[in-house]
């Protein structure tokens, strides 16, 4: 049994980690921290976990985390980077769901996140934990940077073309829509039902933190600079991401559908739909699945539709998928439930 703890367990990603852990055959959550909720029962904070968790929130990890196998950080950016070094030195492996270790350049992190990086010496060691790319690296990783939700949906849409050398540098356009849970669980006026309901709104058009993460990783996959225009939108739904990704090919490809089907043949959580399909966010609600559909709109132009649950494949489910690979478990352990409909 893998002994784990969650730091920052009162948000949506913390709640999803607890929900998924409840159905995992080899994962035991030993502690969940929260300064604001310390002493409160987890099941009082998350009523849907009543009967599945008997833990109370604690202010900090007991004994500094010693004796644990892995710690998940479900905290805002700027927290994990101050605490990870001590855990690693104690032999505890870390999976960070925040952005603290996603970017390779400390100056780039400071520019986009408004603070200097507290552990720049760990950036090179951190494994960017997209399991469809990094399975072998995850097997030996001490520190994993769980990818962002938008970057996950966009990368999985572009990965087959990038790896095969078919992707032109530009134009690449990622037009993405997200449910309001992507903004976190704190009280924010734009997230109120009366504000977000019956409304669609773009944001971050002049520059979004996830844009630099997407470009960093697509550039790595393609072996050339990727010039991506990324525009996120807020949708009146609780969870889900729909990414419509427009790509230009260096030259026409005979069978783009086959390129995608072959690339994802052995990946349990990427489902390439039949040609001409239109995936829906509700088809992945509560699951760790990314569903893709490929459309060749004209010779040399491809539109890829990518849907994920932002809290599962875009965060907590992906973190557990990475953990499974880190500890030599079945990659799909605890993650095989179908979507909840309606």
UniProtKB/TrEMBL annotation:
SMART domains: Semialdhyde_dh (SM00859). It catalyses: N-acetyl-L-glutamate 5-semialdehyde + phosphate + NADP(+) = N-acetyl-L-glutamyl 5-phosphate + NADPH + H(+). Residues 3-141 form the Semialdehyde dehydrogenase NAD-binding domain. Its EC number is 1.2.1.38. It is an enzyme of class 1 (oxidoreductase). GO terms for cellular component: cytoplasm. It comes from the Bacteria. It is found in: Cytoplasm. One of its GO terms (molecular function) is NADP+ binding. This is N-acetyl-gamma-glutamyl-phosphate reductase. The lineage of its organism: Bacteria, Pseudomonadati, Pseudomonadota, Gammaproteobacteria, Chromatiales.
């Amino acid at each position: 049994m893998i002994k784990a703890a969650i730091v920052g367990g009162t948000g949506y990603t913390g709640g999803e980690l607890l929900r998924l852990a409840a159905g995992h055959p080899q994962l035991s959550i030993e502690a969940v921290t929260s300064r604001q909720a310390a002493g409160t029962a987890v099941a009082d904070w998350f009523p849907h976990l009543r009967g599945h968790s008997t833990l109370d929130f604690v202010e900090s990890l007991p004994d500094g985390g010693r004796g644990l196998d892995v710690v998940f950080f479900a905290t805002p950016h700027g927290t994990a980077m101050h605490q990870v070094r001590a855990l690693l030195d104690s032999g505890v492996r870390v999976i960070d769901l925040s952005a603290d270790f996603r970017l390779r350049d400390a100056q780039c992190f400071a520019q986009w996140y408004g603070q200097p990086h507290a552990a720049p010496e760990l950036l090179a060691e951190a494994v960017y934990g997209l399991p469809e790319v990094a399975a072998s690296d995850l097997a030996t990783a001490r520190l994993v940077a769980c990818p962002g939700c938008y970057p996950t949906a966009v990368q999985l849409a572009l990965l087959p073309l990038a790896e095969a050398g078919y992707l032109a540098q530009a134009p690449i356009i990622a037009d993405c829509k997200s449910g309001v849970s992507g903004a976190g669980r704190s009280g924010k006026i734009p997230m109120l039902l009366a504000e977000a309901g019956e409304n669609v709104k773009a944001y971050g058009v002049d520059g979004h933190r996830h844009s630099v993460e997407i470009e960093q990783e697509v550039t790595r996959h393609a072996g050339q600079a990727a010039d991506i225009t990324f525009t996120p939108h807020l949708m009146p739904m609780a969870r889900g991401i729909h990414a419509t990704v427009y790509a230009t090919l260096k030259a026409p490809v005979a069978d783009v559908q086959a390129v995608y089907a072959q690339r994802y043949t052995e990946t349990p959580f990427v489902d390439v739909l039949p040609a001409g399909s239109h995936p829906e966010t509700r088809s992945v609600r509560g699951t760790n699945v990314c569903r893709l559909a490929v459309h060749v709109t004209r010779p040399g132009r491809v539109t890829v539709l990518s849907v994920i649950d932002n809290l599962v494949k875009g965060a907590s489910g992906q973190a557990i998928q990475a953990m499974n690979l880190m500890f030599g478990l079945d990659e799909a352990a605890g993650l095989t439930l179908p979507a909840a409909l309606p």
